[in-house]
Structure formats: C-alpha cells, structure tokens
Amino acid sequence: MKKIIINIEGSVNSGKSTLLGYLLWKYSTNKDYIAQKTRLFQIYNKQYKVPVQEYLANLIQITSDETIRQMTSKSHAVNITIGDLQLIAIDIGGHNRYTYQAHLSTVESDTTLFAIPVDEIKEKAYLKNTMLTHLITTYLVRKAFGRTPEFHVIITKIDMEKDYDKYVSQVKSDLDRIGKILGMTDARFYYYTSSIIVKGINDIQAEGQYEELLKNLESTVQTRINSSKTVFHARDVMNPTENIKVLAGRVMSGKIQKNDVLNTPYGEQKVIQIEEFGQKIYAADPTSYIAIRFERDNFPLNFKGGEVLGNFEYFSNGEITLLDLRDTMKRIQEEFELKDEQYYNPPSKIQKGTKFYTTINGYRTALKVEDVISEESKKLRLKVKIEDRVDKISVFGEIRNTGITYEENNKIWGAFIL
C-alpha cells in the first residue's frame, strides 16, 4: 500500500474539513469508522443543534468540542484509505497565528493542498495574512528538503452553474505574480474546483475534480530524510485517556520498534506500544504516521511538537540570509493594491545575540547571531552559530524568533517571524 501524507491549508471557513470529510465519505473503504462518526454526529445534531451541513467536517474532527463549535481548533491527521492508496491528511486551523502548525505539518507531509473559497477570490482575501503566510512558510520548508515544492489548489464553494473559469484564471495569474516576486520559479501548482452541498446525512451533492486530485496525489513522491539515524517528527501530545499520554507524528527515517529506548526532549523513554490509527503494530517504518506510548509519560500538555530523535547537521560557512516575512507580505499586498490591509507590527531589531530556531536540512536547530554582516532590501545577512550541541533536541514553541529556511548554493535563506 502506498502512503501519501498531505497537509491542507486555507483560511477559516474555507471548507478544508468539509473537503477532507467528503473524500473520506465518498472514497474511503473504512466504512465502520464512518458509521461510528455518523452515530456521534446524530447525537450532536439532536442534543446541541449542530447543523447538518457540518456532517462531513465532523467525520474528520477529533473532539466533540470542535464539532459543537463548528471549527477546527486542534491540528490532527485523518486516515483516508482508498484501495491500495493510504492518504494521511493533516488538517490545521485556518488562521495566520497557526503558522507553527503549517510548519510542523509541512515537515511531516509530502505535498500541500490549499483550499480557497470563491468569496475569498472575489475579495482578494486569500492574498492577505493566512494564505500568504502559509504559502511562503510551506514553500520554504519544502525547499529545506531539497524538493520541488508542489501545491494542489482547490477552488471551493463554487456554483457549478455559473462561470467560475474567471476565478480559476485569477488565482493562477495571482500566484504566478507572487511566484515571480518571491523567486518561486520552481513551484508546481495544480488547480481543481469543488462544490459540496450537504442537505442531509444521506443527501450530499458534490461536483468537482476529485478523481483528478486523487490521481495526482497518488503520483506524489514520498519525502524521506537521508539519515542513518532514526528521526521521528512528533506533532503533539495526545491523550487517549486522562492518564495515558502518547506522542503522535511521522517516522522520517530509520525504524521504531517496541521496547526501543528513544531520546526525547524529556530524557530517554522506552517504547511500550505503537499504534497506527488505532491498530497496534510491532514496528514502524519510514513514512509511517504513528502514535507512541512510552513507559513514562512525563510530557507536558503544552508540548507543541518537534523532532524526538536528533540528527542535526552543521552548514559549511555559518552564514544565513533571512527574508522578513511581514515585509514580504506587505510588498505583495501593495503589488495587488490591497492597501487597506492591517499589517503586522514592525519587526524587532535583529542584532548580535538574537537567538532563534530554524530548519537546516530538514531539522530544527537553535541558532544565535554572532554578527550582522549586511542589510539590503529587507534581507539580513548574518553570521550565526549553532547555540546548542547538534545532538540536543530543540522543541518547536510559539511563533517567536522562528526562521524557516532552505539551503541554496551552500547558503541558508529563509523567512523570519518574530
């Protein structure tokens, strides 16, 4: 069975969860899971008056609170098995403050899906904070793996009876202009349309290029880290019950087996159980998306994710060039004459001693600025050093002092978010 992991991004109310729920409902062979979630939704529908239109989103949401509030608040992965294809889709919150989740899910995934509703296209809203922040972040993280960044853009909430070609053309034209501004000449975009109307649990109408999407996703090349060590990229701490904690995420290289002792951010921990979407397994190979239960479970509830097993690498000349993401977004928005947009506050001063986290060769690394070499066109060329030992684990935290980078011609480039 071929496994492809995708992360789906877009703004609030863009139809991300509904789209994933439809793919699960329409194509997945896991009918028992769908039946179980359907029974739960019928309870929410009756007891909490959750609209029937939320049925598909409920299929992939992991908490009752999300269904009742009708919004995704906790990023999570859902398994969509279609014949010999296993799609593992990571759904994240639709707000630019979830950039750290966009970063985590991009590291874990093989490709990215953007959901853009027609109303956002009409208002140019997708060129504001959320879409631009996630697009730039995702592009740079993809480059960190030395891969051609690949995006599947789905125009959602369309009326199939109306002329929507102009909206598809507008998005294509806009992303082409953005690509030229950012130098994203190697990015590959695929475009699709989607219209999903839920009138009842047994009355779902949908039109769109879903088969084409699945065909293109199936041809995606899986991301693998060339490493002799084992790297497990942990998304978060999950709590199946009140007193059991597990780490969930993707095996990026190597193999994890039961009884292995792993180096975690909180000391060495022995693996006592491995699960892959509820099924207990003895060993997990690269590309597996799993949950690990340890002998000790002293992980704090605010753990945001990061590499559990370190394999950091030095870069040759210790120089890094940072592109300020806020200034880049402002430049793009002015290019499109979106001058009424509320920009971020001006960035703090980056100077000697500033410490931040970045991605080098696909791994989270703590860096400290030794010297500011030059400053041109909102780009900073810095002399930096790795702050901690290369085998020390750095845990991803809030969106503060976070560089998201890729390597080109032996130099590190990236976006900088304070």
Rg is 21 Å
Name the structural class. Answer: alpha+beta
Kindly give the count of domains: 3
The total count of strands amounts to 22
Identify the CATH class of the largest domain.
Alpha Beta
Share of β-strand residues: 35-45%
- Summarize model confidence as the mean pLDDT: 79
Give the low-pLDDT segments.
310-314, 343-347, 389-402
CATH topology of the largest domain: Rossmann fold
Query: Oligomeric state of the chains?
Result: single chain
Report the biggest beta sheet as strand number plus sense, adding barrel if it closes. 7 strands, mixed
Number of helical segments with 4 or more residues: 10
Examine the secondary-structure arrangement and name the CATH architecture of the largest domain. Answer: 3-Layer(aba) Sandwich
- Principal-axis shape equals globular
Helix content range: 25-40%
Distance between the termini: 42 Å
The side-by-side strand order for the widest beta sheet comes to: 2-3-1-4-5-6-7
CATH superfamily name of the largest domain? Answer: P-loop containing nucleotide triphosphate hydrolases
Domain Tr-type G: 4-210
Protein name: Tr-type G domain-containing protein
GO molecular function, one term: GTPase activity
Pfam family, one: GTP_EFTU
